[in-house]
Amino acid sequence: MDDQGMTSEPPAVDAGDLAVGEECREYLAEVHQFLDGELGAERRTVVQIHLERCRPCLGAYDFEAELRVVVSTSCKEKELPQGLRDRIASLLREVADDL
Predict the structure, then answer these.
(1) What is the DSSP annotation of 12-69?
(2) Rg of the Cα atoms in the chain
(3) What is the pLDDT, as a whole number, of residue 77?
(4) How many CB atoms lie within 10 A of CB 43?
């Protein structure tokens, strides 16, 4: 608050920080593979360098990594309902059949 009891303006956001171009979309498409350790060493290094240089992509990576932790923690604390467990198993069988 300033002297007159007014709250200060929120900080300005640089639109360049939020812009996601085609190159970023390609990297973001690989975030799950990156997190799962499924990328080859060379591609992993390229993605890592991009994440270190690109704040929007790093933010998306951080979100996905934290989401995995929350989901993992939640799943360990409670048992899945049988109906959900059956549905997941069915979907996994469908995916395996398509491979």
Answers:
(1) P--HHHH---HHHHHHHTTHHHHHHT-S-HHHHHHHHHHHHH-HHHHHHHHHHHHHHH
(2) 20
(3) 59
(4) 13
Q: Which amino acid is at 44?
A: R
DSSP code for 80: P
Q: Which residue is it, tokens 């360049």? A: 16
Residue pair 31/64 in contact (Cβ under 8 Å)? The answer is: yes
What element of type H or E holds 94?
Answer: helix 82-98
pTM over 0.70? The answer is no
Q: If pLDDT is split at 50, 70 and 90, which confidence band does 96 have?
A: confident
* CATH number assigned to the domain covering 21-98: 1.10.10
Which pLDDT score, from 0 to 100, does residue 68 have?
86
Q: How far apart are CA 92 and CA 39, in angstroms?
A: 22
C-beta of residue 46 within 8 angstroms of C-beta of residue 79: no
